[in-house]
Specification:
Blueprint: H1 3-24, E1 28-33, E2 36-41, H2 42-90, H3 102-112, H4 128-141, H5 148-151, H6 158-170, H7 172-180, H8 187-200, H9 203-207, H10 217-230, H11 238-246, H12 252-263, H13 268-281, H14 286-295, H15 299-307, H16 315-325, H17 332-335
Antiparallel strand pairs: 1-2
Helix pairs in contact: 1-2, 2-3, 2-4, 6-7, 6-8, 7-8, 8-10, 10-12, 11-13, 12-14, 13-14
């Protein structure tokens, strides 16, 4: 029985009892409690105990009804929080432990410690929120781009990083926008964006944004590859190349890679000058300078450098000179592995 029906039925019963008693006996009765005297018809006195029981039972029902309502509401909120927690785990977001129901709180603690992912394209659920999140995750993992307004994740989120990488790969113009405004993105996005720009845009465009980029060896090699393949002369000047190279902790092997890339298209004098300037800025690059000199058969220059070196330095090039002096000519590239 609903509480409204209970109230109506109780009132009808009280009226019926009072009316029946009044029809039988309509006299009044006086009762004194301490210094207070109360005079009511007998009918009223007869229904007072029933009325008191009615009030007590009504309060009892209201209390437990309210308690049940609050418990049900808490349970419903906790269920929603659990769904949000699962969604956050799928989106690689931080989760919050604010569950109130003891059983669900234990379940939430377990979920918070798990790595949750989805890779099955046939995944199904009746929960629309989770279904949407799963669809977004699957799209991103398959290389597609999901609108950032729809995804609503910070740029530092790993899933958002992958999503933006996907966009960079799919949209060269977006990659250029990233390069133009690098302060809005993490290095994890800027690097592939600049590489994409190098691959898809002209060197004239690329040169405008060199100062925006924190170079590493991968970006440097991609830039050198572009520059060496598209022109018979440097599109990047020696000073521009040196400025870029100095940003990277390059090794002599890295510089030899650069030398090999440019050797087919660069003017020898400019290439030699580039490596001479690099050696002048730091003697640790002497080996790569020797490589360039050997490529262009500048034997006297090599002898001069080797003559001023330590006994255990540049042994490969000393061996090359010794072989040459013995009329045994070998290509340097056949000796370098």
């Amino acid at each position: 029985m609903g509480i409204k029906n209970y109230i109506v039925a109780s009132v009808i019963l009280l009226i019926a009892i009072g009316g029946y008693v009044y029809s039988v006996e309509d006299i009044e009765y006086t009762y004194q409690i301490l210094n207070h005297t109360f005079t009511f018809p007998v009918a009223i006195w007869m229904i007072l105990p029933a009325f008191a029981l009615f009030i007590a039972s009504l309060l009892h029902m209201l209390y437990y009804g309210t308690k049940t309502f609050l418990d049900t509401r808490t349970l419903q909120k906790d269920r929603e929080i659990l769904i949000d927690t699962i969604g956050d785990k799928l989106l690689l977001k931080e989760t919050k432990d604010n569950l109130r129901n003891p059983e669900l709180k234990t379940l939430g603690e377990i979920i918070n410690q798990l790595d949750i992912g989805v890779s099955d394209l046939n995944f199904t659920t009746s929960n629309k929120k989770i279904a949407k999140i799963v669809d977004q995750v699957l799209q991103i993992n398959s290389g597609k781009y999901v609108s950032t307004k729809e995804l609503k994740l910070p740029n530092e989120n790993p899933l958002m990083i992958q999503n933006l990488k996907n966009r960079v790969e799919l949209d060269g113009n977006f990659a250029l926008e990233v390069v133009k405004q690098p302060s809005s993105y993490t290095q994890e996005i800027i690097k592939p964006a600049f590489i994409k720009v190098v691959q898809t845009k002209s060197l004239t465009t690329i040169k405008k944004y060199l100062e925006n980029i924190d170079f590493d060896i991968d970006i440097l090699k991609e830039l050198v590859k572009k520059d060496s393949l598209e022109h018979t002369d440097f599109s990047l000047t020696n000073s521009e190349l040196i400025n870029v190279i100095k940003q990277v902790d390059v090794t002599n092997d890295d510089l030899i890679y650069i030398a090999k890339a440019y050797k087919q298209t660069a003017i020898p004098d400019k290439l030699i000058k580039l490596f001479e300037d690099l050696m002048s800025s730091d003697e640790k690059y002497t080996e790569s300078y020797l490589y360039i000199l050997a490529q262009y058969e500048m034997i006297d220059n090599i002898r001069e450098i080797l003559a001023n070196s330590q006994k255990n330095e540049f042994t490969l090039y000393k061996m090359l000179i010794d072989l040459r002096d013995a009329n045994k000519h070998y290509s340097l590239d056949t000796l370098i592995k």
